[in-house]
Design brief:
single chain; 70 residues; mainly alpha; 2 helices; 0% strand; rod-shaped
Length: 70
């Protein structure tokens, strides 16, 4: 692949990073709210935060693969 054939990836990769961080933060926030509701602190915050982390990794990887074209 020549330099001329490559697309600039800067702005779409910022979007992938924002998606990654927002999924982690939303997982922790949702877990915190469920823990407040059920009085089980910090069980759901940890579990949903980890699910947000895994989901963020998968979504960011999917987005960068789609952008990169591989």
């Amino acid at each position: 692949m020549d330099k001329q054939d490559r697309k600039p990836l800067g702005l779409p990769l910022v979007g992938a990073g924002n998606m990654f961080v927002s999924m982690i933060v939303s997982g922790f926030l949702l877990g915190y709210l469920v823990d407040e509701w059920l009085d089980t602190r910090p069980l759901f915050m940890i579990v949903l935060g980890m699910l947000g982390l895994v989901g963020g990794f998968l979504k960011a990887h999917q987005l960068t693969r789609r952008i990169g074209g591989s």
